[in-house]
């Protein structure tokens, strides 16, 4: 019966591992840079063509623009470009709607339609940049053109906003492209440690290694089943503690100005964001192993104390309150 339970456990762990994340193709920032420069060129062309009116635009607070909290500065782009790129993608979708089919530059009832050809070129480039960012193509509903939207001042206002946005977008992609093509870095991530636990099959590999360790220990004749489960738990947690919570820095060159040098792998994971899928998986797995070890050792006091101490050694460092904390200065440098 014990053998059957262990085989069932292995099968369940393998099934759970199928839910591991699949690594998607990395964004080609170089292609994005080319398209962003093309968008800037088209925006500059429109900026020079659309007349400036004497009227003041009715829009006082633009709904979509790059703000300081969008983390588009170089330091944040080096560490976590997703926040800025998500804002860029949102603005691109907005401009695709304004300058594309059904927008104010394509409608016959507005004063903007005399620049419809150049506006269509802008919409095509925004769509291409969204494809580079792997944003799903969404059908855009035609804009409801109100009376105030037919006025000429809105044409100039939209073009000015587009031109300013295109400059920032070109700078963002230029920076990310230069980081991606950095000499000596053969990967598109500034620090691959941030994403390695999201790679294809990494969860399955982790579970298989744990199962193999357990089977190897079971094959040793003089070890009883309770001892094997306790050893599996302790060795697993020791390896996790060493690789995730002790070793710092990266095994490769990174252009992040040495920011990862003083961080453990756990602190680098997912850019330091808490409670991601990988962090939850690596937190739950030692707990499940601890429950199994406790069950198969029949809650013996000695085994229970060893397993509990081992579990706490890998659970406490994972708490958000201990992020970057070095107790008594141990492992500070």
Automatic annotation (TrEMBL):
Keyword Mitochondrion: no
Entry's family note: Belongs to the ORM family.
Signal peptide as annotated in the record: 1-19
GO BP, one annotated term: regulation of ceramide biosynthetic process
Main function: Plays an essential role in the homeostatic regulation of sphingolipid de novo biosynthesis by modulating the activity of the serine palmitoyltransferase (SPT) in response to ceramide levels. When complexed to SPT, the binding of ceramides to its N-terminus stabilizes a conformation that block SPT substrate entry, hence preventing SPT catalytic activity. Through this mechanism, maintains ceramide levels at sufficient concentrations for the production of complex sphingolipids, but which prevents the accumulation of ceramides to levels that trigger apoptosis.
GO cellular component: a single term: endoplasmic reticulum membrane
Record keywords, A-Z: Membrane, Signal, Transmembrane, Transmembrane helix
Protein name according to UniProt: ORM1-like protein 2
Gene3D superfamilies, per the entry: 1.20.1250.10
PANTHER family named in the record: ORMDL PROTEINS (PTHR12665)
Major subcellular site: membrane
Subcellular location: Membrane
The keyword Membrane is annotated on this UniProt entry: yes
Membrane-spanning segments: 203-223
Topology of the protein relative to the lipid bilayer: Multi-pass membrane protein
A Pfam cross-reference name: ORMDL
Subunit structure as annotated in this protein's UniProt entry: Ceramide-sensitive subunit of the serine palmitoyltransferase (SPT) complex, which is also composed of SPTLC1, SPTLC2/3 and SPTSSA/B.
Organism: Bagarius yarrelli (Goonch)
């Amino acid at each position: 019966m014990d053998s059957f339970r262990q085989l069932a456990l292995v099968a369940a762990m393998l099934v759970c591992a199928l839910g591991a994340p699949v690594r998607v193709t990395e964004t080609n920032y170089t292609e994005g840079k080319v398209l962003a420069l093309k968008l800037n060129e088209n925006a500059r062309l429109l900026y020079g063509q659309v007349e400036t009116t004497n009227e003041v635009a009715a829009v006082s607070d633009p709904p979509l623009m790059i703000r300081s909290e969008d983390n588009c500065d170089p330091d944040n782009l080096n560490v976590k470009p997703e926040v800025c790129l998500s804002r860029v993608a949102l603005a691109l979708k907005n401009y695709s709607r304004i300058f594309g089919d059904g927008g104010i530059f394509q409608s016959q009832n507005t004063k903007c339609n005399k620049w419809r050809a150049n506006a269509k070129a802008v919409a095509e480039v925004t769509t291409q940049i969204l494809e580079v960012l792997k944003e799903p193509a969404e059908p855009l509903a035609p804009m409801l053109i109100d009376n105030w939207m037919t006025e000429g001042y809105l044409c100039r206002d939209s073009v000015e906003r587009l031109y300013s946005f295109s400059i920032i977008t070109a700078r963002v992609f230029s920076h990310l492209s230069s980081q991606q093509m950095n000499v000596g870095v053969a990967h598109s991530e500034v620090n691959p440690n941030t994403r390695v636990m999201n790679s294809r099959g990494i969860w399955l590999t982790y579970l298989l290694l744990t199962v193999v360790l357990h089977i190897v220990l079971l094959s040793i004749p003089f070890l009883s089943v309770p001892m094997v489960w306790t050893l599996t738990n302790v060795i697993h947690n020791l390896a996790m503690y060493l690789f995730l919570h002790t070793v710092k820095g990266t095994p490769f060159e990174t252009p992040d100005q040495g920011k990862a040098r003083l961080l453990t792998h756990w602190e680098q994971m997912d850019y330091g964001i808490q409670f991601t899928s990988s962090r939850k998986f690596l937190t739950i797995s030692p707990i499940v192993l601890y429950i199994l070890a406790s069950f198969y050792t029949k809650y013996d006091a000695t085994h229970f104390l060893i397993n509990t101490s081992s579990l706490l050694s890998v659970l406490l460092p994972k708490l958000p309150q201990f992020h970057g904390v070095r107790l008594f200065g141990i492992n500070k440098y």
